[in-house]
Amino acid sequence: MDIEAEIRALQLDSAEDNNDVVNPEDAKLEKVEKEDEVEVEVEVEGMKDEVHGRSQPGQAEPKVKNKEVVALEDAEAQEEMEANKKRHLNVVFIGHVDAGKSTTGGQILFLSGQVDDRTIHKYEKEAKDKSRESWYMAYIMDTNEEERVKGKTVEVGRAHFETETTRFTILDAPGHKSYVPNMISGASQADIGVLVISARKGEFETGYERGGQTREHVQLAKTLGVAKLLVVVNKMDDPTVNWSKERYDEIESKMTPFLKSSGYNVKKDVQFLPISGLLGSNMKTRVDKSICSWWNGPCLFEALDCIEVPLRDPKGPFRMPIIDKFKDMGTVVMGKVESGSVCEGDSLLVMPNKAQVKVVAVYCDESKVRCAGPGENLRVRLSGIEEEDILSGFVLSSVVKPIPAVTEFTAQLQILELLENAIFTAGYKAVLHVHSVVEECEIVELLQQIDPKTRKPMKKKVLFVKNGAVVVCRVQVNNSICVEKFSDFPQLGRFTLRTEGKTIAVGKVTDLPVA
Ligand code: GTP
Ligand code: MG
Boundaries of each Tr-type G domain copy (predicted)? Predict the structure, then answer.
């Protein structure tokens, strides 16, 4: 059975819907945004309202009573919004091991003036001492000793840079198959992906083969909500490539059907471009015609600048999956806002424990802000909870409309590739990855098999399925986890199942038990 065709059948997002959030709130958002231009107090009041827990889902927003006070707050909030006028996007660098993700990420920081020549020389020397001469650019992103010695990213590197229109957070994922869980955590925070592919002879082929991480990363990225991909064909300067149009076209033509079958609309969601991450060619400025005469498209910075992503709802119920936490004058949690906004002084819940907390401070990148909206990577200082009482995978959530916490849910699963001789049946155990949750789970019942062609449930009872099958089943976990229905919040309702370090299925939550 053709696995790739089946992934499409799963319709994690159909290519047509362009990954737009299937959310009736969206229409409202557009309206609200327009209103904001004339009536800012509505927005601020809306946020406050969430804070004080007065608003009821679905009700019209109450109007402000004390106009004077609110107007003052509005002015401040307005100022802050102005300062943050550039949109913010999280971009994850994915692709097979050694494709050049860290090198390209490092080069971006160098080209955007964040790393001086002296540091580069220092890295050059350090890389040489480790007999890894060509890795010096990667050292900008690979900051720990193990990564530098082995020349492989282990933990997701994080950095910031800006283009004309956008503030970017770069998440440099590891490509090595042992670190796929780290890659998943990086991708789950991202809006867009830069898929780095090595054009060097033999390297594209190894990455693309079954078992190579090019395919796995693409499938995971799509499942985890990475809406758009820039596919950078890297190492174009390599002597085996030498900016060959033929090689570039070959890679594009092989990748395109695969990207399609993974659910990406290649016309709307995917863009290819050639670069040399090591030399920095076609990155900040377009590649010189004397080097590459045939390329008439954009350079990487231009492409990143123009990329469009679906709108998120700043007025939706607040949801921020926690990816990390630490102690620093209180309890600080880190994560990406998936829905809603947060302001200093807000009362929120840490789910699934239902712990009531208060927001003491909000930090976006390095700076303290009063409020932050969806898509932002934040550090939030909380009072009312001890650091020990929080685990990654918990969700900072609205009080009025908290995220559901469940130990069981119904899901539609696409089986990718089971371990050899394994059968997917009731009793199957795997590790579930959903937003920042990593939890052991068991399939307790297979409910229906879906016909990949008609996408309709098949009549006959299903007891087990094989590779490539699409199946609806009940999934159970031991500890309560926070998930949403995919149809309500795609980012919080899509997941992957892994066994023994291999991704065996991707899925979406279709139903939750009634609370
Ligand atoms: P992992 O983090 O282990 O997945 O690898 P990575 O994708 O981050 O690759 P990295 O940036 O560490 O680069 C791997 C090797 O490829 C290094 O030797 C780089 O110098 C080399 N490399 C990366 N980009 C280019 C390029 O544009 N041209 C050439 N010739 N070599 C490159
Ligand atoms: Mg790397």
Answer: 86-315
